[in-house]
Amino acid sequence: MFGDILSDEASVLTGSLGMLPSASLAENGVGLYEPAHGSAPDIAGKGIANPIAMILSAAMMLRYSFEMNEEAQAIEDAVESVLNQGFHTADLKSNDGKLVNTNEMTELVVKAILK
């Protein structure tokens, strides 16, 4: 319960829980990687979920469980690039930039990785 409260409060630093990747790691490198926000069933199928926390959780998995640091960095750089271009999901309120849905944000990040 205390960890849940801390993660909710820490989301203020990033602008949304949708930005926070998470990992539970064992000493042997095995890990469970997931967004800090959980499944958000109340918004399932609406196209408004922010996929960045899940994308960054995958980057953490590459880095910490598979020692694929270059690949993890490529994902992190792609997310940063897309956000710096002003693209945002509904949870990241912005007066500037372009509002995109879940699929569009994912596609933008994938395209940035492939550049």
Give an overview of the whole structure.
- The chain is an alpha+beta fold and 115 residues long.
- It has one domain (2-114).
- It has helices at 2-14, 52-64, 69-84, 102-114, and strands at 21-25, 31-35, 87-88, 98-99.
- The strands form 2 sheets. A two-stranded antiparallel sheet has the order 1-2. It has a two-stranded parallel ribbon with strand order 3-4.
- Strand 1 and strand 2 (31-35) form a beta hairpin.
- Helix 2 packs antiparallel against helix 3 and helix 3 (69-84) crosses helix 4.
- The longest helix is centred in the middle third of the chain and has 16 residues, at 69-84.
Q: Can I get a quick summary?
A:
With 115 residues, this protein is α+β, with helices and mostly antiparallel strands. The chain has helices at residues 2-14, 52-64, 69-84, 102-114; strands spanning 21-25, 31-35, 87-88, 98-99.
Compressed to H and E, one letter per element, the order equals: HEEHHEEH
Q: Main sheet, how many strands, which sense, barrel?
A: 2 strands, antiparallel
Total number of β-strand segments?
4
Compute the number of helices: 4
Helix percent reads: 40-55%
Rg of Cα set: 14 Å
Quickly give the structural class: alpha+beta
Contiguous uncertain segments of 5+ residues: none
Please indicate the count of domains: 1
Strand residues, percent: 5-15%
Q: Categorize the overall geometry.
A: globular
Could you give the order of strands across the largest sheet? 1-2
What is the mean predicted local confidence, pLDDT?
86
CA distance, first residue to last residue: 41 Å
